[in-house]
Structures are given as structure tokens and as C-alpha cells.
Amino acid sequence: MKKLIIVSAVFCTASAFAGAALAADEMAGMKMKTGAMDTASSKDTALTDAVIRKVDPSTGMVTLQHGELKNIDMAAMTMAYKAKDASMIKKAREGEKVKVRVESVNGTLTIVKMEKQK
What we know:
By secondary structure, the protein is of the alpha+beta class.
């Protein structure tokens, strides 16, 4: 009886490790996003073309009509984003064409860089 329990325990342990190894192998080629870690280690600092549609100083939000935001896998759309700081809000003008960088900062999509288009 003791032998049966030991053999069963060894079999279960081996099965668990084999399953984990197979799952890791299947996911080896996948590009996974890890939230804050991606933002901190991202080398891609490309800016996206956008038009400012609305500025709300009371909430610190800027509504942008933008192209694809590749770094956060977001399609082109019109959406409101939190501005990184108050100086961004003061400089933003409705209808102005800008280039922006949006990132997830503590779980909030935030405009971390905004400059006027030339």
C-alpha cells in the first residue's frame, strides 16, 4: 500500500511538470504584454499623429482623434486620455494637430508626450 501511494505521488508530480513544460513551449513564441513592465522597458518611443478634439482642465483629460497606438495595441479612434501634467492641458488647443505618445501609467491610459505637428 505504501508503495502504491509513493508511485502515485511520483506520477502526479511528473505529470504536473510535464504539463507546465508543454504549456511553456507552446507560448515561447508569443509576444506577451506585462503592463507596467512593458512601459518601463519599452524602447519604442514613436509618436502618433492626432487632432485635439476637446480639452477639459477640470478633469485633466484631453480627447484625441488619433491613429493607431501600436505600443498599447489600440486601433485608430477618438477617445479621452488623462494628461501627464497640467502644463500639457494649458498648451493644448482644440482642433490643433499634434503628435502624441500614450502609455498605461498605473492602469490609466495617459498622454505622456504631446508636441505640435510642424
